[in-house]
Each structure stands twice: as structure tokens, then as C-alpha cells.
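WARN retry 2 of 3 for item q-0093 after timeout on previous attempt; input resubmitted unchanged.
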Amino acid sequence: MLESDHKKTNKDLILDAAENLFAIKGFYGVSMRQIATQASVDVALISYHFGNKRQLFDSVLLRRTEVLNRERIQMLDDCLRRAKPDSPPLHEIIDAFTHPLLNRANKRSDGWRSYFALIAQINNHPELGSVIMTHYFDPLVKKFIEAIKMTLPNSHEVDIYWCYHFLSGALTLTFAETGRIDNLSDGKCVSKDLDAVHERLVPFITAGFKAVCEQND
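OK item q-0093 returned
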């Protein structure tokens, strides 16, 4: 369980501490001893439950990734089912991909905030990103891309992949919450206002896909 009132086990405490520290300092900036200290457990207990630091890192990611991916697939399946025998509207596919992330992030819990900060780091890391994002997210992403291909049947595949790449970048910047838009807009926009993000992100990305992919029609 996540973010519940149940009594946390040592494994929960270790995962929470690791998630927080990895989000702040990155994978290479955190030691197993630091994690043990924050979790108030013996460092040997981390090795017992998770093995080495990389295995612990993977466990941290998997805990919340599984929750998100199940929700995203369910939303995608629902929009595919509603549209039968036709293809689903593009904006519904984009919404199914983005809504579960923004919904979780908007709850402002420390755990989910750390998780998304971690994902933003990984997505921008040339070494970790190519391995971790491929392993945990590519099977899911490919399902969404196949749905987009159905909806935009005359598109070149290369255009769809580029558009997904831009979508991924937009999400990464959003979750990083750098405050850049706050400064640029003199406070008119707030990077933490994820309701405002979701209201604009889906139509923006949908229009981008159509502008690039439908030019071949």
C-alpha cells in the first residue's frame, strides 16, 4: 500500500527513505548508509531485503510505476472500448497517458512528489534514462503509440515517435517544477498548479501530434 495509515514495515521505511534521498541527490549521490540512517535501520537490513543499491533503486521505481502503469492501461483500454469499431479520439489517448500522472502529482504527497522528481532526473540522464525508462515504460508507451497509429493511420511512424518524444519532454519539465514559468510569467503561472497544466497539456499535445502527423494526409 502507498500513502496509507497502516503501520509501516522496515521495507516501507527503507523504500521511503531511499525514494526521498534519490530524488534530492540522485542515484550516485546517495550511499546505502545514508539511506539506512534516514530509515533508522541497520545498513545490513537493506542488503537483506533489496541486495545492492541498484536493486534498491529499481524497487523504489517499481513500487509506484506499477500503480501508474495499471491506471494508464485501464484508461487506454476504456477509451479503445468506447470507440469500437472506430479508432478512439486522439485527445482521449493523450489524456489516458497523462491524466494518471498529473492526478497523482496533484495530490502533493511527499512520496509521489519524490517519485516524479526522480523520474524527471532519470529521463534526463544519458546512462540511467536509456536503461531504466526502456525497461519500465517502453512496453506501456508502445501500447499508446499503437493506439495513436490507429487514430492517425496516414502518419509516418517517425513523426509519431518524435511527437511522443516531445510529449515526454513536456511531462519531464512539468514534474521538475523548476519555477521557471513562475519567474517568466511574473507569478501569473505557477509550476505547482497541475490543474492548470492538465487543462492545457492535452489540447496542446493533441494539436502538436495533428500538426506534425496529419501533414502527410
